[in-house]
């Protein structure tokens, strides 16, 4: 098995030479285990936080051990009666080409007429995150005006479409004109986020003069200050991510945090894994929309295991790569 590891704890944006491609021989397959050959690997922003040697809601990655992440694989050998060769499963032994995994730890995939890799994107963890943040955390109603940051990304692009289909007015921020054009085609009022917090606030105000009721926050930094300044009284902020801070331990702000008080807002962070019991409900709602082409999604596909670090690092570039980052093996 070939796998990626990190050989040191990165500071700031990881340099590509933090990653090392290693090889090991897999031991004999144990009882209750599956030998899976990976077909698609997911890279996700949260992995950056696991590279720091600090436990948060999840353990840090061990140095020199295989990295982990969501992956889709095919069972090539099974020592569990529930699975047979050829079955497709989702599991956490990503960043490698093949692995032995416990059958208890894998997920079977829903039976929908959709491309396999959507189970890592719009119908996987990112999609479930959009749905959870809007519904469970923000309690979205059809008369809400919604702001989504990183709105054209894997999470954001489903969030804006679910909100729009509910009848909400939606403002979305993104880092390039192309991304803004795509958002516009989805019925979203786009704002390019490459401007100061003050200018962003003005642009959001121009797009939604009635103010923002629900803010789905993915970015942090000046974006969060602009979001706070754009909120109506009693607004709800679902804090999903802070990607602009993941590579800078000493980032300042937000300057406008006192507005949570003055506007009597509710601001709540969430981790989608804690809501995984609702995944079936999410699939029942979003699965048919994706299968029928009523939800659009974008992908940036990187080919070959060697490209995994590059795919991961692309998440921290603004404006360049679109949608869900995937590695195809
Ligand atoms: P995306 O597909 O949105 O990709 C990341 C995007 O973030 C980039 O394409 C870029 O978009 C934007 N970005 C990167 N760096 C910056 C920066 N410094 N300032 C502003 N924008 C930046 O990734 P995901 O959809 O997978 O994740 C989106 C967010 O959701 C992340 O914050 C992630 O951590 C969070 N998340 C949280 C979960 C939870 O359980 N709470 C679960 C899954 C994701 P652009 O070109 O538009 O600038």
From TrEMBL:
It holds the Pfam family ADH_zinc_N. The keyword NADP does not apply. Gene3D superfamilies: Medium-chain alcohol dehydrogenases, catalytic domain (3.90.180.10), NAD(P)-binding Rossmann-like Domain (3.40.50.720). GO terms for molecular function: oxidoreductase activity, acting on the CH-CH group of donors, NAD or NADP as acceptor. Keywords: Oxidoreductase. InterPro entries: ADH-like_C, ADH_N_2, ER, GroES-like_sf, MDR_fam, NAD(P)-bd_dom_sf. The keyword Oxidoreductase applies. Residues 12-327 form the Enoyl reductase (ER) domain. This is NADP-dependent oxidoreductase. It comes from Larsenimonas rhizosphaerae. The lineage of its organism: Bacteria, Pseudomonadati, Pseudomonadota, Gammaproteobacteria, Oceanospirillales.
């Amino acid at each position: 098995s070939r796998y990626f590891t990190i050989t040191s704890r990165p500071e700031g944006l990881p340099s590509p030479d933090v990653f090392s491609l290693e090889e090991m021989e897999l031991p004999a397959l144990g009882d209750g285990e599956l030998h899976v050959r990976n077909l698609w690997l997911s890279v996700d922003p949260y992995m950056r936080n696991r590279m720091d040697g600090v436990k948060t809601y999840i353990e840090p990655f061990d140095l020199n051990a295989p990295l982990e992440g969501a992956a889709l694989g095919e069972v090539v050998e099974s020592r569990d009666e529930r699975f047979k060769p050829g079955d497709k499963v989702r599991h956490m032994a990503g960043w490698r080409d093949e692995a032995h995994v416990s059958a208890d730890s894998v997920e079977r995939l829903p039976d929908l007429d959709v491309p396999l890799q959507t189970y890592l994107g719009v119908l996987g963890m990112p999609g479930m995150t959009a749905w959870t943040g809007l519904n469970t955390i923000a309690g979205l109603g059809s008369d809400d005006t919604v702001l989504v940051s990183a709105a054209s990304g894997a999470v954001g692009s489903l969030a804006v479409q679910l909100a729009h289909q509910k009848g909400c007015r939606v403002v979305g921020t993104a880092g390039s004109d192309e991304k803004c054009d795509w958002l516009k085609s989805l019925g979203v009022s786009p704002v390019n986020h490459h401007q100061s917090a003050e200018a962003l606030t003005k642009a959001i105000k121009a797009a939604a003069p009635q103010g923002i009721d629900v803010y789905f926050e993915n970015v942090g930094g000046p974006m969060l200050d602009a979001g706070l300044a754009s909120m109506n009284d009693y607004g709800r902020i679902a804090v999903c991510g802070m990607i602009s801070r993941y590579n800078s331990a000493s980032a300042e702000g937000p300057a406008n945090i006192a507005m949570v008080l003055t506007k009597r807002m509710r601001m709540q962070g969430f981790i989608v894994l804690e809501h995984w019991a609702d995944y079936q409900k999410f699939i029942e709602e979003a699965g048919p929309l994706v299968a029928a082409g009523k939800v659009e999604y974008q992908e940036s596909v990187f080919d070959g295991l060697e490209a995994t670090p590059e795919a991961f690092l692309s998440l921290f570039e603004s404006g360049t790569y679109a949608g869900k980052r995937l590695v195809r093996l």
